[in-house]
């Protein structure tokens, strides 16, 4: 999230492997009660709602684990502080690859049958991990191999539907049968239309093979949150009808029906709206003020409904729901029960589906509803078929669906899935067919640490206390200490910090004041702070693997639903040329310098931190393919549209060319003005963009928004003037204007997932060792969190040509869907079958074979990156970075930023003062260190 303070790798030094998360460090005070201790005081701008390694989503939710949990392996600063190296953490030694050809026949066959469906498997697919026998939970309970297996079972349990489950079946680390187990027999709420009209059309639900599906027969009405397959069957296709909601069907039909139909539609809408208004708690909703201001059911808007979960229709009998009784009078309300709702639904289906054979059936009321349907169960699939097993108490074996190299495996196992399963289970709650656990949320007692630190205090919205875990093996295990025998004396004294005290400070100005008063040990700087502290020798810049982008809703159907006021247009965002013009009008260099502190102008998806080859440290942006991406996008966008010969836009411009911006914006506007589609742009319209952000009061967010508003307002004014000068009949002297409404939405990714937005900041990153797998968030049609809503789920419907042989011609095998290229890159072009030596030594016998696969894979990566950006559904703005001031109390181990380990992390963080000494230092300097920090030089 753009307003949260990210965990600085300079402090944590913990590798972030997830596609959506980072970690966060932030600061604060009053945690240093021990004068001889070493407390790090820091802050967060928001309080984590959970910190369960199985289901964390946002960066604040991964904060606590970054101190209290460790992986099987870790990446740490090397001995001479020039780079990184691997060490064993929860593992006692490096992973061992088992050669299947050395198994006896019975073992080979048994493994093949259990994990690989009887198919052959090879080197790189079976691994053994020896576990550290001194590892224990904070309560002293030993951690054994079975704990890893049982934790994985909870993670993949279908009824939990854990958010992080796909970390173990996507990308280049795929545990055998993990995905099948996770999705096996899951009960999901789905529209019943396609099931109830299949098979015998007798009111039961059938799958595509005409088998009766298991369902609860406990129906739900989803008015506006998700797309309705029934509504889609009624509306004529316009290229975006797959996102039509039931609300659209009831209220936005272009042709009115009979009075009975219109009354039924109105009764359903008001009845459901009344239920949400009167009987649902909205105190935690982003639009809670809108609900609080609601005075009557018919004033509930579609946008308000789009954020609400489906209602179980039998609850209409237990609640006193009211609705209208007359078509032209919404104020005269009557009781509305489940049977009334069914009658109205039957009326809708009977009239709108009259051409079908089932419209008049007594079960037709079910057609527009949803039900919990249990997916087909493979009864022969159990956790025993998932590729993780305890060979003995301290040996973990992994069976992988595809080969992986030892180096890649160590990177992947630097994160973990371990939970205290007895506590996890004791906190389980069952709701219908779904399970939920409170593990890692709300209270210290709901969590168990096993890393160098433990969670000892958590007060929502106030403070988090994390203290040294005296049960951690690293403080006493001699074999562990030997790993650092050749380091300096300072380096060998790892984890000197005794406590991390984190306050929740929402206001940046407050955090700055606390830092200058000595109550914080770090502070992120914003653009205004840079004026005073930008030259301080205490300032560091921490690069991040995150690209900050503007992502649009480009689905015309959804935009039309959201376009509620005449004269205020949203559907133009579905026009690619218009979006291209918006992109070209943004001077990213100025944006980065004026609206951010530490970020760099950027036009791609994968910045300079991504590794193309982990065995050699080859950086993706340094490869020929990585360098080609910019030209694939801007190769003909230099100069002006009137130039005879097209030229490339200089890379120093970072995608900014105002002449071409006006050309494409004008083209898009003219096309929309001529359109005959519903809701198209009209002369004099205001383009109304709702810009959802995490915090609309953040100084940085406001500065970014102001910059964008200024650029696009100028563009609209200039384009309007040019259109009027060129052809007075197009705009008739009127202007096209633009207004951006900055809206706070702390869960805006979920909002975007459902199409309830116009524009957001999307900030994908992490996984710097696996850029190929990270492209899932853009390319994989099954990935549900894709932010570019108009393209989401359609990646298998649009082709992309990639010039694999670099001859400029479209040859066989060079055109594939975006989804197809993703699977080609991650499944077929598998580098995991080659050893790390083959990837780094030109004299290795397999080097040439690997090199051919590697180069092709890079070409596909660059081609898909350029292909996504060329759609202009997202506009990359900056490669994220943070400028911070480090307090005088502490020192980083390295003065230079090093990829993957930052400045050395908390492992090697050095303290210049004890808590007591620091208090004295602050007092001696008058309790205000502002000028000292501003003028400090080395």
Give an overview in words:
The protein has four domains: 9-85 and 427-541 and 883-935, D-Maltodextrin-Binding Protein, domain 2 (3-Layer(aba) Sandwich); 96-130 and 144-183 and 382-417, Alpha-Beta Complex (Dipeptide-binding Protein, domain 1); 189-374, no CATH class; 545-602 and 654-769, Dipeptide-binding Protein, Domain 3 (Dipeptide-binding Protein, domain 3, Roll). 31% of the residues lie in helices and 17% in strands. It contains 33 helices and 33 strands. The strands form eleven sheets. Strands 20, 21, 22, 23, 26, 27, 28 and 31 form an eight-stranded mixed β-sheet that branches. A hairpin with a 2-residue loop joins strand 15 and strand 16 (434-437). Helix 9 packs antiparallel against helix 13 (338-352), helix 21 (576-584) packs antiparallel against helix 24 (658-674) and helix 23 (624-634) runs parallel beside helix 31 (847-869). The model is unreliable at 1-29 and 236-242 (pLDDT under 50).
User: What distance lies between the first and last C-alpha atoms, to the nearest angstrom?
Assistant: 34 Å
Instruction: Give the overall form.
Output: globular
CATH superfamily of the largest domain: Periplasmic binding protein-like II
Radius of gyration: 29 Å
CATH fold-type name of the largest domain: D-Maltodextrin-Binding Protein, domain 2
Considering the chains and any ligands shown, give keywords for the structure.
alpha+beta, 4 domains, Dipeptide-binding Protein, domain 1, 938 residues, disordered N terminus, globular, four-stranded mixed beta sheet, eight-stranded mixed beta sheet, D-Maltodextrin-Binding Protein, domain 2
